[in-house]
Design goal:
Mean pLDDT: 88
Strand content: 5-15%
Helix content: 25-40%
CATH architecture: 3-Layer(aba) Sandwich
Largest sheet: 6 strands, parallel
Radius of gyration: 17 Å
Number of strands: 6
Shape: globular
CATH superfamily: Alpha/Beta hydrolase fold, catalytic domain
Low-confidence stretches: 100-105
Length: 242
């Protein structure tokens, strides 16, 4: 057992398999924990929603804990962090929509989210394959990434439509950062430059140095197949800068 812990929270549609071994890079320094939100992967709970589940993770976290939240999981983590941060040392947000200044949802295309909701209802399989392609389409390695996504996240292993629809409603609510912590020391925002959902340039403009941020080139919304070593280096450096 180590003195420090690191917890990984996945994004929309994809369960903890999405990390593609990122957790293993931290084994020598941290006790690592990977969670599935309700309705995802092996988590069959229906008595609690994703935000409540995330709140419980934060409330029950041991001291010296870092949390890594990806995309939708990052939004949930940011909400929880502002209410239950006593045991959380660092929060890492990867490709996460942030409303930092104006409490207006400026970085996600709300029309695209609503279109996705409608397409899920009409043809779930086609809709999710299209979404997977959108996740990687601008990446330097998009062909390999898309092929792997289709193989790993086959339709029968994905959440029910009702769960996905509820999560998409959650995504439409802007999240603003309060002033209860040191933004530069407590939070790291990592964005990939080829994310088709969240413009890296726009995020940088909105952030404007308010919290520490880093960029990774060449990768799309899912950076874990070819960018884990770089992600690990950024996180390890940030955690070490106490």
């Amino acid at each position: 057992m180590h003195d420090s812990n690191i917890i990984f929270l996945h994004g929309w549609l994809f369960d903890k398999r999405i990390w593609q071994g990122l957790d293993k890079l931290f084994y020598n320094k941290f006790n690592t924990y990977m969670h599935d939100f309700p309705g995802y992967g092996g988590n069959l709970r229906s008595d609690i929603n994703s935000q409540e589940y995330c709140d419980n993770i934060f409330k029950n976290a041991k001291k010296n804990t870092t949390i890594v939240g990806y995309s939708y999981g990052g939004l949930l983590a940011l909400n929880s962090f502002q209410s239950y941060q006593s045991n959380i040392d660092k929060l890492i947000l990867i490709n996460c929509n942030l409303d930092i200044k104006n409490q207006s949802n400026d970085t996600f295309n709300l029309n695209s989210i609503r279109d996705l909701q409608m397409s899920l209802v009409s043809d779930k399989n086609k809709s999710l394959k299209r979404f997977m392609y959108e996740c990687v389409k601008n990446s330097k390695h998009y062909k390999t990434e898309y092929s792997r996504l289709i193989q790993v996240f086959f339709n029968n292993s994905l959440p029910d439509t009702s769960v996905l629809l509820q999560n998409l409603y959650d995504l439409q609510v802007p999240v603003a950062i309060n002033y209860g912590f040191d933004r530069q020391k407590d939070i790291l925002l990592i964005n990939t430059e080829e994310d088709s959902f969240v413009s890296c340039k726009k995020v940088n403009t909105i952030n404007n140095g308010l919290i520490k941020d880093e960029r990774i080139p060449d990768l799309g919304h899912i950076p874990f197949m070819f960018g884990n070593n770089e992600i690990y280096t950024l996180i390890d450096k940030f955690i070490g800068a106490r």
